[in-house]
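hey so u asked for the seq, here:
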Amino acid sequence: MAISDWPETERPREKLIAKGAAALSDAELLAIFLRTGITGKSAVELARNLLIHFGSLTKLCAANLHEFSELPGMGPAKFAQLQAVMEMARRALAEELKSGNIMDSPQSVRHYLQLSLGEKPYEVFLGIFLDTRHRTIVTEELFRGTLTQAGVYPREVVKRALFHNAAAMIFAHNHPSGVAEPSKADEVLTQSLKQALALVDVKVLDHFIIGRNETVSFAERGLI
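ran it, structure tokens below
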């Protein structure tokens, strides 16, 4: 049955308008993005199949062009649209983080970092450089590593902090394994960065570990 034959209150687009986007399931949101289904499947059914195939909405959004295009009804045009949506979300969150005290919007920080790092197959170490009012100056990828480690050098981080005239910093890196639990090496590195930056009066506010579906804050764990 086509979605147009469904009761109006059950159609994803009408439901979104009446109740807001948060009321929709992942499949319903994806169906609105897809707009149409394929022969024998409505957009919602196609969306459900995509989510089952990839395992989650996050993994679907992180798929490369080849993986995405292997499925019926998908192709370069849909892939480009999806990537544009993801980038708009990242940029919107980045703008929000620049507009005020970053510590006033901890959820926005988490969402931004999850979108930026959550599904990368290699380890990336980010630095968010902040001014005296804890507003974002810039976010930079400081180091990129392998599946198991990234070489992070405190001296280089200090140089970048001085270059940006930062008063404080937040660090984040992903665990490609998907598990966000900090390792002992993560704790040692955080303390080394904190001590090195203290010598130039730059405060480390937090270090986030990004897993596949969760984010761990060092500050919340009392590790900063």
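The longest helix spans residues 76-99. The chain has ten helices and five strands.
lmk if thats what u needed
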